[in-house]
Design goal:
The strands form 3 sheets. The protein has an 8-stranded parallel barrel, surrounded by 8 helices. The longest helix has 23 residues, at 322-344. The N and C termini lie close together (11 Å). It is 47% helix and 18% strand. Strand 10 and strand 11 (268-269) form a beta hairpin. The chain is of the alpha/beta class. The protein is globular.
Length: 355
């Protein structure tokens, strides 16, 4: 098992400028590389403050020059919004400029607000997603393309800019069609519970295990699995509660976007409380927040229960000031990772031992 750093790059209010959001993501990625994280992830969203990063591949390419060993990738590329021929070449270019340090996450998207502005029907997102996935698989695996589908007609086309080797692929989405294909092809399902944390992750993992049994995976109770959690290391109880409040804010924004076209003030989504949102106390309990001992204990328990092959940490939440987020990441590397090794063994063996 390895660790990932997730960069959503939210601009919660105008007081934190877009440039600061970008600089904070760069600083966090550099530190994650130094600590020994396996992957730095960059989100993709459009036209709102939820994420000011419209191109995770561009962020990854820039950060390739700032880092040495960490993989860099998209969590996730919203495939229905892309021209697949351009996308496969840009993935190849990222692989080459980063020295083969690419990880690719793909998903179908869910925001009507984004789809409408790209002229793509949200109702066709799954069909578009699966067809572009076909194109990606062929191009990245064979270095060529020829495709005839419902949405794309591509004549025989050599791909000059290809990765040195097909990058690891992570897939979001719990639809049986998606999970079955991901597991059958060797891709890794990627789940996130958001502000609901562990309780939500449990149900999502069950869906992955069911798919592994359905397709006859060799060891169906231990499928490849990437999970994402809010993680924050702090000795300050007030700061821990602040993290929970920021996670709740992100949850409200996501709910507003899922409901349709959100109310906006410029690019800022007006996120209201939802009827079923957890209390701050419940959020803090469900997420991995607290001092180093608490965080290590919670993570060890989650790893033992959920058996992930990749654990993505979301630390800079809703424009959390960069100094606070960096301090948490530093404590994670200095204090939490050694505690996990003492409890579970070498980090690269944790997944197998937990399983």
């Amino acid at each position: 098992m390895d660790f990932g750093l997730f960069n959503l790059m939210t601009q919660r209010d105008a007081g934190v400028g877009v440039q600061q959001v970008v600089e904070d993501a760069k600083a966090m990625t550099r530190l994650a590389d130094e600590i020994g994280f396996g992957t730095a992830w960059f989100a993709e969203h459009h036209f709102s403050n939820y994420s000011v990063c419209p191109s995770p591949l561009m962020m990854a390419a820039h950060c390739a020059g700032l880092t040495k060993t960490i993989r860099l990738g998209a969590a996730v590329l919203v495939l229905p919004l892309y021209d697949p021929l351009r996308l496969v070449q840009e993935i190849g270019l990222l692989d080459r400029v980063s020295g083969g340090r690419v990880a690719i996450g793909i998903g179908s998207g869910y925001q009507r607000f984004e789809f409408e502005r790209y002229g793509r029907p949200l109702e066709e997102k799954q069909a578009l997603f699966l067809e572009i996935w076909d194109i990606l698989d062929q191009a990245l695996g064979e270095g060529r393309l020829q495709h005839s589908g419902a949405h794309f007609q591509i004549p025989e086309s050599p791909i000059a800019m290809t990765p040195a080797a097909p990058p690891p692929l992570y897939v979001t989405g719990l639809a049986p069609t998606v999970l079955d294909r991901a597991l059958a092809s060797g891709a890794t399902p990627f789940i996130t519970g958001g502000a609901r944390g562990l309780p939500a992750l449990r149900g999502m993992r069950e869906a992955v295990v069911e798919a592994a049994h359905r397709i006859g995976l060799a060891d169906p109770d231990r499928p490849p699995l990437a999970m994402q959690q809010y993680v924050f290391v702090t000795d300050d109880k007030a700061e821990a509660r602040e993290v929970a409040e920021r996670a709740r804010y992100i949850g409200r924004v996501v709910s507003a976007m899922r409901a349709g076209v959100p109310s906006l003030d410029g690019p800022f989504i007006l996120a209201e409380a939802t009827n079923d949102e957890p209390s701050l106390e419940a959020i803090e309990d469900a997420l991995v927040i607290g001092d180093a001992e608490t965080v290590a204990e919670k993570m060890a328990a989650e790893i033992a229960e959920l058996r992930p092959s990749h654990y993505s940490c979301f630390m800079q939440i809703a424009s959390m000031p960069g100094a606070q987020a960096l301090a948490s990441l530093e404590k994670f590397g200095a204090d939490v990772m050694p505690k996990l090794e003492r409890a579970l063994g070498p980090l690269d063996e944790i997944g197998r031992k937990a399983a």
